[in-house]
Amino acid sequence: MTTTGAPREEARDRDALTATQAALAAEHAAVYGYGVVGGRIGAGRRTEARSAYDAHRARRDALDRAVRDLGGRPQAAAAAYALPFPVPDAAAAARLAAELEDRVAAVYADLVRATGGAHRTEAAAALREAAVRAVRWRGSGVAFPGLVERAAAPAPSGTAGADSDAL
Question: What does pTM read for this prediction?
């Protein structure tokens, strides 16, 4: 008796779509968050914030296309997102930027696990970029970006929920 790989392939495709949607949601939140960062960051780091904002917009647009390629309907951005803490000044803006990058890295770690081929390569590159930006904002790094953060934060979901509008 032979078995086909269809059910396994369908599950893998579903997992890839779910992880891609979660990454898209994280990028929507990062774009919003960098709008806040840009409004509070000092002049000396404004170029760095703008560069990160542009990088997240590009990743968001690529993920939108990837969701469509996987047969899904891209999740729309929320009108606003809850910030994890108040951002009254440049120091808080830098902490927010590091937090945004940590959260993006976590969903890209999931995307690396859920995909293969070119999608996995892109997810790994995005994970690396987020980890590097987090180090720049924070001044220190972690051994396994995207994984260590999971111990301290709830796992992101590929579906919208009550906390889907939180950064």
Answer: 0.82
Q: Is 70 in contact with 119 (CB distance < 8 Å)? A: no
Query: Tens digit of pLDDT for each residue in 10-63?
Result: 778 899 999 999 999 999 999 999 999 999 999 999 999 999 999 999 999 999
For residues 132, 138, 144, 148, the Cα torsion angle rounded to the nearest 10 degrees is -140
CA 126 – CA 63 distance, rounded (Å): 11
Amino acid at 97: A
How many Cβ atoms sit within 10 Å of the Cβ of residue 80?
8
For 96-129, the pLDDT digits (tens) are 999 999 999 999 999 999 999 999 999 999 999 9
The answer to whether the beta carbons of residues 101 and 151 sit under 8 Å apart is: no
Cβ(67)–Cβ(17) under 8 Å?
A: yes
**Widest Cα–Cα separation across the chain:** 68
CA 59 to chain centroid, in Å, comes to 9
Closest CA to 37 of 73, 74, 81, 91: 91
Contact (CB, 8 A) for 68 and 74: yes
CA atoms of 14 and 83, how far apart (whole Å): 30
Residue indicated by tokens 């891209």: 74
